[in-house]
Amino acid sequence: MSLGERTEAWTRRLNDAIVDSPRRVIVIFLVLTLVFAGGMGLVSTDTGATDSFTEGLDEQEALDAVNQEFEDPFEPESESTQLIHSGGNVLTKEALVRDLRVLEEVESRDDLRVASTNGPATVVAQRIDPSATTAAEQRRAIESTSATRVRQIVRGLSENPRFTGTLATDFNPTSASASASITVVSHDVPAGFSDGDLQEVQTTIRSIAADQPGEITAFGTGVTNAETANVIGDSLTIVMPVVVLLLLLFLVVAYRDPIDLSLGLLSLLMTVIWTFGFLGFSGIPFSQQLIAVPVLLLAVGVDFGIHIINRYREETVAGYEATEAMREANNQLMIAFIIVTVTTVFGFGANVISDLGPIRNMGIASGIGIIFTFLIFGLFLPAAKLEVDELREKYNVPEFNSAPISSEDSTLGKFLTFPAQVSRYAPIAFVVVLLVTGGMAATYGSGVDTSFETEDFLPPEEQPAYVTGLPEPFAPSEYTVTETLNLLEDRFSTNQDQSVKLYVEGNFEEGHALEALADPNDDAPGALAVGDGGSAQPTSIVTVMQSHAEQDPEFADLVARNDIDGDGIPDRNLARVYDALFASTSGDRAEQYLTPDRRSAQVDYAIDSSASQAEAAVDARQFAGDFRFETTATGQLVVFDAVTDIIFNSAIQGLILAMGLTGLFLVIAYAVLEGKPLLGIVNLFPILIAIAFLLGTMRYLDMSLNALTATILSISIGLGIAYSVHATHRFIDEFNEGADAYESMIITLSGTGGALLGSMLTTSLGTGALALAITPVLGDFGLLMALSVVYSFVFTVVALPPAVLLWERYNGTWDGLAMPMTG
User: Fold this and answer.
1) In what order do the strands lie in the sheet with 215-219?
2) Closest C-alpha to 201, from 215, 187, 191
3) 397 φ/ψ angles, rounded to the nearest 5 degrees
4) Any signal peptide, and if so, which residues (predicted)?
5) Angle at 596 between CA 590 and CA 599, to 5 degrees
6) pLDDT by residue (tens digit) across 624-669?
7) Binning pLDDT at 50, 70 and 90, where does residue 432 land?
8) Could you give the CA distance from residue 670 to residue 814 in angstroms, rounded to a whole number?
9) Contact at 8 Å (CB) between 143 and 156?
10) Distance (Å, rounded) from C-alpha 199 to C-alpha 207?
11) Distance between CA 310 and CA 743 in Å, rounded?
């Protein structure tokens, strides 16, 4: 017996087990559903947004070292909260008092763990009364001072970096005004203090600030994580009801029978329960990317469900009794379902090779979910359908409409077979046109951008009307992070997108150490060459030292005595020079660029505003190689560029892997089962054209490959191949019955084509509902997923017929060389 015959015999035995013992199958699946339901309560939520993408990168580890080793009172830290005051002049007496009232209430709460505070109000108050150490004392100090005196103090602090560093770039010393300010609240946290604890602290501070008059808001990683978690919940709340309603609408049209509809919906619900239960038991956290998984599984489940019910109805119309009709339908579909499942797992699961954890988790979750979908729709649904039909007959429950979706004589059937009728006359010309247009679309689409931005994971500053107008319980939470990020970028000089950092490790007490930091700056590469003559504009321990020397003659003399070559940079006795600098008024500033043990330094470099993220990151990495000490380019821009590169590589590698595995499997499967290996290539042909057009559409719509859309290429193969596989498998059944290729294709498109159309409508609208999600990353993915499904269906109907006709023409030449494998 050949391997193909053994495979068919095995699937028949499996089918017989389902058809002959449906109750046993139903009980087993219901018990498993209860087991997986227990795992749903174990599902955790990943609120880290970008953190999970950057984990393990060398650039991120260098940035973590910078954040840990260098003190900057003006930068947000993981264990600090920023209070951002905006609106009008934030340096008036009244505005400063408002800041301190917020701080006073925050300090009064022991659970908020306030260790220290620093902002314009605290600096002004301590200039008035140096003994005022609490917010209450500082508030009273400013309240007892005249507004005129407060303005004088503000003007006198215009050269104090601890004061000016907390103000917007539009700070005007003359008028003592600024449009925004930052007050940093540092927290004294114990061991074991979790992200959830920080989130609770910061959201509480945000509530306190919101209750005070004036535009004051709290910002920090805890607030960002809280809003990210809300985004996941709100997106599911908005998207899933729309998906369910759309699925319900089209399933009603497809099934046209409430009992069959209920069985389909039950199977979909079980698929979701199994998948979420698996996430809980496996410990995979639920992130924004995984919101797409249940939608994808529903799409594939709908496809399977429509096919099994529609084929069963075709057999009953042909005169079979219920049991034999299901046996015949399942015998025909089981192989197709297995092929679709394996190829879909290849497409979805190809993302497991990604170096990025969230994309890898999505590949695992979707791959396992597809296997669950096959088991539930391939085994449970047929058994449940048989059992329900037996009960329906026993209790005389009427059938509402059990006709197939389309037939050869129907208007829909004629429409679906039109491409096959046209291509019959010139199949070679059709295939050539498809190859040329597909190649043009792929070439155009190869220029699609790749991006990775924090804003992708956060709601836009202004929500569309359909979101803001939703009633409870669908109304989304209030989101402030994007607005705050935009304010920080617009009004403060702390925009990390306009600078890069170099993390330098070495012994900075050696005589040449400071020269080693300064020497490469005269010949900086492109994006860093923003100074005169192509030089860089760094901020480092060298520039802090030079700036302090201009203000302190005694320190300037110390530097000069130890500057052998007269270039303004000391070459000896550096330990003594550092001691004097760290003990001076510039000591806080110096600590931002050199560690106390003098073993690590950071250098900030401004970059050309016209340079792209990729150009700046490449130049920064090249520049790091010019330093004598071990140097790593880092900073948010460099880290995100590294993630962008990985995203692009993941997309291409996932596509190649999915395409290669799918093509190889199809060739082997059709060789083993039918002795027709070239049908595997024919099967893949429409989907490759669909992917080419999808890429071209992405570029045309100015949509980039990002943290989620990068998975679309391999997923499109996994999801789209189902259309081609079902059509090809039905074609083989008809072809083996003695019809020629053209007649078989007409029967296929008029019969199975109707099920494909119903599946396309439900799937495209269901996945397209993700476009309603709150975050851009999910919206783009939903739109592209819907387009992918439409393209897959269209090119299955348009591209498969001429490819099949060409296959028949050369069938004897090529496929005859590959006989079915024998055991």
Assistant:
1) 114-118, 180-187, 80-86, 215-219
2) 187
3) -80, 125
4) none
5) 105
6) 888 888 888 888 788 888 888 888 888 888 888 888 998 898 888 8
7) very high
8) 13
9) no
10) 12
11) 21
